[in-house]
Amino acid sequence: MIGKIKHKGLWWLPDRPEKRISGTLKFTPWSGGILDLIGSFKDARYSDKLSSHEIILGTSAGGVPITLYGCFETKSQISTPGFSTSSFYVGMIFVGAHFPKKEDIKFKQLKIHYSHLNRWVNVYGFTRQRLLNFGKRTITVAYALPNSIEVSVNSCKISIAFQVRESYKLEKVTIEQKTYVCITYPEETSIKECLKTINQIRNFLTFAIGEPVYPLLVEGITEVNKQILQGNKEYYPPVKIFHKLLYTPRQLKTIHPDKMLFTFKDISKKFKDIIRNWFEKAELLEPIYDLYFNTLYNPYMYLHHRFLSLIQALEAYHRRVMKNYELPEEQHKKD
């Protein structure tokens, strides 16, 4: 999600597919999504009022289906002789599928590449050998995809997975490995619940690394996109998901594993238990999470506000997980 996107195409409301308007969709992590239309969805008599739409559908010039969720108009103009333009702020963008209603936005699997995840996991499939024989140097690089690490949490399965991309040119060979977190649900789950899981994992990684973590790429698999290929094989084209994150930096810094609070290798033997505990106690510790992570995600917080938030987080943690009385509650009420 750190990247930018731009799509020119046709846009329409789900209940008025016959009225399609040309426009351009732009997204950056810092400003969010903006849809600029050469025209308007409104009738002329309502041109002076700004409107909002839960869903706007579109198709890019390249034929890619796009869904815009949570749209409200920020600008509407009419100039003579009747030429109109309008602009919308877009809450979330789904590139690769049409969801006519909010209730349709569901996913059965998500794949997320977080910032700093490669170095936090620090598991690679490369082996390199350099030989020098009779003055000739030979370099051999071999690669084997590492096995995924899976853990069942609540009503979903979370796994750390690896993906490799290779390219070959006469003067250069490139093998690039990326690490992802995959979330698989037993049945399709609403985007609201999906975002909860994404943010819980983001918070865990931020806690482990000691620096804010951002989802750089989010892709989802949905039944809306299901295709039956030859041989009755099922195929689900991925849907890319974009939405604005507060205080997203324009450039990410590199963090060495030695500078992190702990890495995957430090907890690898207890990783499954730790992740389960993190999710099982999420509701109990939600106020602590909110106070603590707000100090990390907000770089503009005043120092004394940061200090107060951390003290409040410690106090809330103590009250929720520690014994805060000398007498049992029933005996305390009697006395």
What brief labels describe this structure?
globular, two-stranded antiparallel ribbon, Pnp Oxidase, Chain A, 3 domains, six-stranded antiparallel beta barrel, alpha+beta, 22% helix, 335 residues, 16 strands
Give structural notes.
- The protein is α+β, with helices and mostly antiparallel strands and 335 residues long.
- It has three domains: 5-100, Pnp Oxidase, Chain A; 106-214 and 249-273, no CATH class; 283-335, no CATH class.
- Helix content is 22%, strand content 44%.
- A six-stranded antiparallel β-barrel has the order 1-2-3-6-5-4.
- The protein starts with a strand and ends with a helix.
Q: What's the layout of helices and strands?
A:
Elements: E1 5-13, E2 16-28, E3 32-37, E4 52-60, E5 65-79, E6 83-95, E7 106-114, H1 117-121, E8 126-133, E9 136-143, E10 149-153, E11 156-169, E12 172-190, H2 191-209, E13 215-221, E14 227-229, E15 233-235, E16 239-243, H3 264-267, H4 271-280, H5 286-297, H6 303-321, H7 329-334
Antiparallel strand pairs: 1-2, 1-4, 2-3, 3-6, 4-5, 5-6, 6-16, 7-12, 7-13, 8-9, 10-11, 11-12, 13-16, 14-15
